[in-house]
Amino acid sequence: xxxxxxxxxxxxxxxxxxxxxGKKSAQRxxxxxxxxxxxxxxxxxxxxxxxxANVHCCKVCQNLTDGDICAICRxxxxxxxxxxxxxxPRDVVSIERGREYNGTYHVLHGALSPMNHxxxxxxxxxxxLVRVADSDVEExxxxxxxxxxxxxxxxxxxxxxxPFNVKVTRLAYxxxxxxxxxxxxxxxxxxxxxxRTEM
Amino acid sequence: xxxxxxxxxxxxxxxxxxxxxGKKSAQRxxxxxxxxxxxxxxxxxxxxxxxxANVHCCKVCQNLTDGDICAICRxxxxxxxxxxxxxxPRDVVSIERGREYNGTYHVLHGALSPMNHxxxxxxxxxxxLVRVADSDVEExxxxxxxxxxxxxxxxxxxxxxxPFNVKVTRLAYxxxxxxxxxxxxxxxxxxxxxxRTEM
Lengths: 199, 199
Hints:
homodimer, Helicase, Ruva Protein, domain 3, two-stranded antiparallel sheet, 44% helix
């Protein structure tokens, strides 16, 4: 049963279709948007259209960009011999935030997940192989998530990369900096002990 | 520092401007929307424009509607002699959900709040007085929130309504149905005892 005019109901439904937004939050967001000045609401609608129209994947690394090739792939100051493979564009942001990594990226747009019917052809693995085959890549860092799907993806890709004679590495496992041993889970602690370094 | 193409950054900012949506959630929502088919994203943008263009306040009760007069005010089956005064359109939905109230509403679109510079002219009080003056209203139920601002608003309006010789009532205070005495706060329990009814 609907208590709202249909176009408002429709807007609420749209908000509710977003991940993590329930019916109540969607109502609140829709009401808020309606309470804003006309230009504000119009700007929001335009932002969606424009982002959807302009943003696509970089031809080289598959990261989101509004040009043909993204800023990182275009930059002279990035080491093109180093490719960091991540699952999602947001992972690029996470690593860039550290300001230490100086190589390029490859965004898979997902991770292998047989349960969810995501196979090797559903993520950008082929594009990575073409890159490694066509250019002078020295090292590929697998930076997929440390969960089952991320691990499987890293494993799968590292096997595919074997014939190319390129160094394949994986992010280190261990205790997070600034955390407390008490709260580290067993698997992490075991990995941290396994991977201990001399000091 | 921005790691995203500008139109994506713009969309993220728009989402982050919504109440209760932080930067991280805004990123997630923007990425989700970009991952949807073109029609989906377009439909979202259109929903915003259409809701903003079509939805406005009912001439009578100030509730949101896409006509001149809302469905409740138009209905023959609603008791026009009874007006329930609420702060926000969502409060109408809450009361309608109970399926017992058979009168009409008046939506104030806010509550008096000197701290936030919301005075009597900033909410739809004048429209209520005009309604009470011009039509046969028997009772006005003050259903503003049971917080400081809602109480002040109810008190203020009830005083303005005095000269019109109309019955003004307030929602009952007491313990919520299905709750536990143990968790009721003192003020609520005191009000529940004050307002006790014979059984």
